[in-house]
Amino acid sequence: MDTDKKKKRRKRYLKESIFLILWTIIFIKLFVLDIEAFLIEKYLPEFDFILPYRFVFYLFILVLIWYALKNKSFFKNFFYFLGFPFYVLIWKLPKILLWKIPSYIFKRRQWILMYSYLNSIINHFYNFRFNIFKILLLLLSIILTFKANSNAFLTITLLSQLFLLIVLIYDKFKVAFQPIGLFKLNLELSKLKDKEKKKDFFDTLISEIEDADIVEEGKIEDEKQLEKREKKKKENVERIILIKSLFAFLSSRLKDFLSRRTYIVVFFTKTLITFLIAWFIISMMNYNAFNISNTEFTFEGNPGFFDFIYYTFHSMLLGNIQDLLPNGTFAKILDIIAPATSILITGTLLTVFFTVKTEQYKDNLIEIISYSDNKLKYLEQKLIDYHNFTLEEAMSYLEEKKSYVCIVIKEIDKI
After folding, report:
1. Which residues of 43-53 are buried (b: 16+ CB within 10 A; e: fewer)?
2. Are residues 386 and 322 in the same domain?
């Protein structure tokens, strides 16, 4: 039985890998490069007569696959292939990001990495709409960089990439200069201090618990009504206990971040990723400037995109290469922006380093931990106020009801 499951899993992985390769080729053909034309022109120019008739060749291969798989299997896989990009984007990718990666980190007991990863995910969901906008704008700018022939479109693309670069640097500066934030608790603290804000995160949870229609024990006229009230009581106790246990665990583990080395390593990794993204964006900006007017650069041969990646890397590090040099106004401005970006990103890292040296970040973390602990005591008091349960009595009650929460808490206690 296990062997059959492994075979099915391997078969599914193989199929998904093939579909992924095929869709990657289709994407490159549509938006970047005509692969067949490029390969035939470069390596087999004598077969260039095939190019106008390649659709017939693809259709012939499709019919052969249809013949080999028979009707049912063919159409099942064919429609699966057509919907594969949506399957990846809507199900596969979220599953990997939100379950597989956290599960892998959890099993390896890499708590610092786990908190950093979860914090990053929460931050991205917190500004979900704007992050989606940035991703789509980046993808659109990549497509236009390689496919647009109009100088107007290329100029708009260059300006959109400049916008993305400014946002990237601004976000990094915001993280460097604001108080340390984990799981957005720093924002909840700022809301708590701001009298105009009515509720913080924990107050929202408490409000939801209060709205759970808790009913005092009394005369019950209807057996169904009793079951309904008992069910609500169980769900309410589960919610209070689960929230308290999870946040108690997180609050205790936050102390791991009091290590200087941990905090610097986490921020250095994020800074390195920021540098790589900025490098790619500026490379596209230089390539766009070249496509708008090749007089912007003095060059030897016919430079491609990789040459501009190489050139941008040296430019960001205050260097240059002899094969490709800025000549026009656009190119010179970008040659100023590149090292300035590198200096600004390095500046955020130095800011964090000095913050760690002065141990200011510890004060931020201690404030978050204190705030979290106070709210946890508040949850425990609500348990007594609503149900006359201490924590131990509530756990006994849930064990008697065979609640899933007991299993979750026992697993947390093992960590």
Report:
1. eeeeeeeeeee
2. yes
